[in-house]
């Protein structure tokens, strides 16, 4: 009998032989917020067998993490009630997209669904570990009892378990005659009654719907209170703020976050010149390793970066600044120096395998691919020879395997190669031509040809050329002359890959079929097909369903 039982156990699949505690850990791992279908996964898991179902039903900590307001059916909220009840008294993770409260009254039936959701949030505020919601209401919506005041009252309460807080609100701005009216929302003061001992992540976003301005009328701004006596600031690891604010207030706030590791600022600074000498002393944030900035102009960027001292290998990620405020030449040089320091410090601490360098008219864009992603825009002038020499000749880029470029970058690379700088990107394997709305004309193609030949001459040939980000319509020349680079693998542009019988989408030069590189010819053929109204047959959609008990 024992032998028979052992034989039966041996025939079971490995997952069926796992201990319940290990299975529970796997099920708990599947509830992580970054899994988009975690609620569906949990439901399917509970339907596999009686053992798994009982294990799931006996685990309120699993169901407490699955209250994603946007993943429930839109015709009934019975399943949501089931999940909430299964959470018992366990800590809660509550998430919802930016339009959650906007779409609930209109798409759900019965219409009192908002009361049900918000009542649950209010009554269980002390159990919430992670909250990621958006308050999104046009001014004339009937918000009932759970409008903007609901959130003010909620966030005024102590949050004993709260670890991650993400809140976004949208104000509706309208023009009435010559007046501008807005759906203002005032944040609590102090937040969480100055008691959130477990809080590590705080993200506060203010967004605004399309604004109709008349004359000098300006929509009012809601301000995050900066003077609140919140001890939890000193324990924050991640802080994100999206709103216009006084620059000196921001510095005061950051000084209270010595353990900060991640910072995200999207703002228009007011009164930047009002910062006194004591306030403008750099804010030391020795653990700050990731900094994301969405600031309108280079002058404000310089002011902010001059006021922050992060870790030596801090990854700076900028959005493209608006250049309607053009700084003076000496300011541009100062910005270049500061931003170049961030590039070099980051590259010195990390081996960069993939890099993008794009030379545009007004700036040089440098992008890294490894997370956290480096993204820096360096303003350009009429003569940046010394800057480019420092950047391109840096030994910090010796590990680059894949380089993305545009025509401007390629021109400078060829100039430096032609001048004898043969140590540029010694490990370069793949050259990617990126899509920046540029036509690949005959001069561009000839430049690329000369660059590849030059790399061959110095015994540092490029092994792969990638056109995959370019549509075939961008090509005004054929590339069959690249057949001479025997062994060069060319990833074909969008709209041409279907011609490859093996479906791989790339061609190896020297294979004897240069017609695959006649992109200009394909461009003309595709144009004729579209003019004739040709459309490829659509693939039949197949939908697979799932049946089972909740």
TrEMBL record:
This is F-box domain-containing protein.
